[in-house]
Amino acid sequence: MSFKVKTILLFLGISLIPYALTMFLLGNSFRQEQYNAISQELNTQLSLTVARIDQHLQTLQQDMAFMAKSDIMNDIYTQDLDRRIGNTLLAKKKDMNLEGNFFVIDKSKKIIASSDFAMIGKVLDTAPFFSVPVYSTFTREEIAELVVDYRIENFRHYFSDSPQRHYYLLYPDGKSGLRQTLLEEPIKASRKLDVKPELTIVLEEEKAFAYRLLYKYERWFVLLLIAGAVFISIAAYYVATGLIRPVIALSDTAKKVTRTQDYTQQVSLHRDDEIGQLSNSFNMMILGMDNALGEITTLNKEIEDTQREVVFTMGSIGESRSKETGNHVKRVAEYSKILALHYGLEESEAEMLKQASPMHDIGKVAIPDAILNKPGRFDEHERRIMDTHAALGYEMLKHSNRALLKAAAIVANEHHEKWDGSGYPRKLAGEDIHIYGRITAIADVFDALGSDRVYKKAWDDERIFALFKEERGKHFDPALVDIFFAHLDEFLTVREHFKDIVEDDNQV
Question: pTM of the full predicted structure?
């Protein structure tokens, strides 16, 4: 007999037969009486709950009316008063433990004060739960509305739910809210709220649970339960020994393979049914995964190596267009890794930044040669065009899902941002600038100042160091400047190792 057939017969035996016997023997003798008692109890509990909710909503209305008449509401448009009103609304929200927010809106539905400061200035596009007009004490004209976004989650405070009994809200269109699950044959009681008559509170209980007291009157049913318990215990033992144990063995082996990454492990189950076939298929799958994993690992290594080469080559292309040496990107890469490690980044992340930093000026490939290689200062129009290279580089790289190219996109976009917010393209400031951008900014400027460019001669070290000290906390992250000077010998070693070789133009 197959595993499938044995499973079907087993579960038919332990579920359908006791169920059929129970339904036959229970009868209907106490059902109506029990239904009336449960209905009365449900209605009593529902009445108490609805009364508490109505009282809470009435208090909310009264509090809103009081706040709308308070003196602070009379000068709504006074400078900074939106936050003072917001603080008052926030205090009331916290005091009421309210899910949702209070808003003060003008006639165009624009939010001019709120318990959520982030909403100030936005337009309220949802219908408020309660609304109270705010009148000017001078003109007696309505100048605003105090509204509340009262979320239905607030009602949960008044619902004492259980797996067999729960409350929910019923809307006029028939939709329900806060309903936990659909109960089988539920007994229901419902009542409208006095304060919000469009909302109905429904309390429902699972019928089988409500009728549990009937079991006390059916003495024979206890004997049936005992007999059923014995039968189920025997059946459960059979299931555990004959069916579940092999499945657990398969599961444990699969977990062990996942944890150890050892794909040579096998499951040994000598069975002729579907479990045995599953065991053999599992063993074949593991062997296939072991072979495939080796191939995937090799391919991933090749892809990563190729990706690094492509990134470095693209960075070199960007630099070569502006007639800078390939050693510039090498030095910037090494400087970036030194800063990243001393800043506290993990070795793997520091290495990724090293690989990504050569792409910092890739956007220059889109800058016209006449501007890119102009010997001298840019005029205002040329400077604006030149400054677009950061955003252009980001646009080139931002679509990739590869971690390395994502890092390169950040570097390209933010390496000209400044700590004090005066950089470009987005005028980010402080730690809003990604650490990759802050690191590459120092590495790029240090190398650029110490190298000959088409528009300038290289600076001497004293002048560079003086600039870095002056720009600490302005252009550069002060912590990174401190790291730079603390480990200056490492930067100078890299510069010497990758120094530009000047070719003699007189050589043939």
Answer: 0.43
